[in-house]
Amino acid sequence: MTAEATPALVEGPAADPGDTGSAAGRGPRARTTTAYLRYVAGKLTGAAVSLLAVLVTSFFLFRLIPGDPVKFMTGGRPVSAQQIAAYRREFGLDLPLWQQFTDYCGKALTGDLGTSYQFRAPVLDKITEALPNTLLLTGTAFVLYTALGVYLGTRSAWRHGGPGDRLHTGLALTLYSIPSFWLGLLLIIVLSVGVGPVPGLFPTGGMESGGEEGFAYVLDVAHHLVLPVVTLVAVEYGQTLLVTRSALLDEMGSDYLTTARAKGLRDDLVRRRHAVPNALLPTVTLVFVNLGRTVAGVILVETVFSWPGLGGLFYQALSVPDLPLVQGLFFVFAAAVIVVNTLADLLYPLLDPRVGR
Prior knowledge:
- This protein is an all-alpha fold.
- It contains 14 helices and no strands.
- Helix 6 packs across helix 9.
- The longest helix has 45 residues, at 17-61.
């Protein structure tokens, strides 16, 4: 045996450098992927449990509302005991509470939310019919108050302590503390009815005047949309402004911004390219939370302006009480918040890799 062959026998087969590097490279990445998948599974499980809790709560909560749906269905007319029993049997109100609950949960899991007492139509159909109107209102308001809040928040933080900062912060705090229904009524009085020399410029409520077609119909809907959107924007933009301002103020003392300025970058470039992207992480979470909260919290605004959306439908159902419709709408509102918050939780680790590890 030659001396040259000895090392080969002692050391064994030589390892492929490419394989070693690939394994080393895949190790941390595989661990990160596993941690993220575990994080996603935890969030999805939590969301499913929350939805189940909402389903249970929606059934028992609205059984505490005073009022008899059968009296509403009979219109207050004197009816016989046989007719009342027939109504209760038709809508399952004669069954024991536990059986009503199991029937409700079983149907809800298949997408059947029951039949509305007052409309005599499937609850899901009524929700589907009103949903586009709510999305039009909340979507328009959401885009406007998010853009306004982020823009004014960054400007206020970059010039903190100045007159503009004090003005925007004070105005945002004031409007954020005002109830949306009160502000809506005030806008109706001033801009719809008219006060003194100020004429009524906008409709007092509704979504359309009727009789319009084509582009004239679009303008008519936009005209009715102004005051509800202004109400939502005025009340909601303040929170986005304050969170954006606070996050950007925390970033402004960072060393990387000092380095960027030392390299000769203009102040606007330092703000846009370096400070704002890092400061927007808390704002992104808030944006998702606000999206779900706006859909669920539009009830008062839609009621004040007689907007034919989910909020107005919920108010009508609550006054009966139309239990299947109230339960279905409550579940939709809560599900919107849960789903949007879950999406925010799943997106956040992609924006900040430290989350979810």
